[in-house]
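Tutorial sheet, problem 5. The two components below are modelled jointly, 603 residues in total.
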Amino acid sequence: MAEQPFVECRGVSKAFGNVSALHEVDVDLYRGQVLAIVGDNGAGKSTLMKILSGVHQPDRGTIKIAGEPIRIADPHQARELGIATVFQNLALVDQRDVAANLFLGREPVRAGIFVNRKAMREGARRVFADLRVHMPSLAAEVGQLSGGQRQSIAIGRATAQQGRIIIMDEPTAALGVQESQKVLDLVMRLKAAGTGVVIVSHNLRHVFSVADRIMVLRRGRRVGERLHAETTPDDIVKLIVGAGRE
Amino acid sequence: MPDRGPDMDAKTLAVLTAAADQPPDVSTDRLLARLSRNRDLVLFIIAALIFLFFSLTTSTFLREFNLLNILRNTSLITIVAVGMTFVLIAGEIDLSVGSAYGVLTVLMGMLVVAVGLSPWLAMPIVILAGAAVGLFNGLFIVGFGIPSFIVTLAMLAGFRSLALIISGERPFTPRGTDVFYDLTGGNMLLPLGEDRVLHVPWLIIWMIPVVVIGGIVLAYTRFGYHVYATGGNREAARDTGINVARVRLSVFVLTSALCGLAAALVFGYLHAAAPTTGVGFEFRVIGAVVVGGTALTGGRGSILGTLLGAVIIGMITGGMVLFGYSQNVGDMATGLLIMVVGSLDLGLRRHLRSRAW
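Model answer (C-alpha cells):
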C-alpha cells in the first residue's frame, strides 16, 4: 500500500462520561478500497463511524485528510471534505419522490429560489446510471420503494455529493438475500470507480464478500486488522470475542 | 437494529413464492398509486360530483350558491388555510388562528375607528402585527421546544381573551366612507360581452394572489421543498443541512400574517370589527386543509387541494342550509368528511405500501 491514505487517524480516543468508547485507535482509509469495521455491540464501531462523519469529535488523537491535519466539526464539513455517510436510518423523506430525496437540502435552483426539476431529474438519472441501479421511476414516493431501492437512494445521495469516502452503517441489516446482494454489488462498483468505502456490519458473510481489509474493535480498542486474503471468518470471530491471538 | 438476516430471508422467500403463485393485480394497483399521487384530481372530481348533486336535488342551489358565492363565503378561510397548509406540511399545527384573526380584527377596528387611521394604512400594520403574533408563537415552539399543539392551544384562549379585553367586549364600526370598503365588501364588475356583467366579489380577488403565490412557493421553490422535508422527516432534513428551525418559524409567521390580511378584509367586508370574530374559525381552516388532502402527520399536501377542500366544505355547508338544516349540521358534515378523507387516505397508502415488494 504505497499510496497515501485519504484519511489517516492516529490515537483517536473518545469517552462519554467515565465510559471510554474508543481508546487509541488508528485507522487509514484509502480510495478505491473497502474497509470493514467489525466488533461486538459496544465495541466502539458506531463511535468511530460518528467521529469520521463529524457527528462526534475525538477527545484525543489526530485526523489527517489528504495529508492535512484537520478537525471535523460537523457532518456538513465532513461532506465538504469528501466523507459522506449513509446512516442506518437512511435519512430519507418517505413522502417525497426519488429525485427530491437524492438532492435533499442541496436542490439545484433557477433564479435563486425555484427548484430546477429538470436538472434534478437529469442528475438523478446520471447517478443511478453510474451506479447501474434500476429505479422504477424518479417520481415514485420513496416510502413505497423496497429496502434495497431505499438503500440505493441513500448511497446515490452520498455519491452525488462527490463523496470520496462513503461510510455505510449496517447497509444490509434490514434487507433480504437478493437486495443485500444488490447493495454489495453496488459497493464493489463504488470501489471500482475509485471511491473508498467503509462498512460497519455484523454480517461476516457480507463483510468477507466485499472487504479488502477487516478491522476488529473490542471494548473500544483496535484488536486487529487483517487483509482479506490473509484471514478467515474463524480468525475474525476469535478477534471479536477475544479468544484468539492478538 | 438487531441482525434479522435469516428472518428477512425467509420473508423474502415467502413473498417471492406468493408472488409466483398469484401475481398481484398490477393494473388496479397502478391506478390506485396514480390516484394517491394525483389527489388534487380526485378532489376536483369529488367537488364536481357534490356540485352536481346539489344542483340536481335542490331547485335553488345553482341560483343561490353559484361558484362565486361559495368562493366568497370561503375566501377568508381559504386565505388563512393557505398558511395552515404550510404549517401542517411542516409537521406542526396552529390552533390559534381563529383567535389571532379575532384579536387582529379588533386591532384593525381600533386603528381605524379609535385612532382614526386610513384603513389602507391600518391594513399593512395589522398584517405586520399578525407576523409578530406568529413570531411569538414560533418563539415558544422552536425556541423553547414546546409542541405547537400546546402553545397554540394556549394562544387560542389567550388571544381571544385579549380581543375581548382590549375591545371592552364591544364592536368597532367605522363611520367614514372609504373606497377600501367597496374594494373589500363590494363586487368587481366584469363586463361579459353585450349587456351582461359578472359581479365578482372583491374578497375573491384578494384571495386569488394568496392562493397563486402560496401554491407556487410551496410546490416550486427551495423553501417549499424544505417545508415538505421538515415535516416528512425532521431528522433527515437537519442531517442534510436544511435549517429546520427557520422553516418551522417561517410557517407560523406566514400563517399569522395571513390572519392579519383576513382580519383587515373582514373588517372592510362587514364594516365592523367584533371581538368574537373567528370563533370556530380554526376548525373550518384546518378542516379545509385536511379535506384538501394535506396530512396532519406532515410531509404531504398541496395548496390546490386546500382550495378544493374549502370549496367542498363551502358547498356542503351551503347545501345543508338549502335542505333546511342549520349551520351546525354543516359543521357536523364537515367533521364527517374529515374522518372519511383521513381514513380513505390512510387505507390507500397502507394498501400500496403492502405491495411495495
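Marking note: Residues 1-8, 15-23 of chain B have pLDDT under 50 and may be disordered. Full credit if you identified this.
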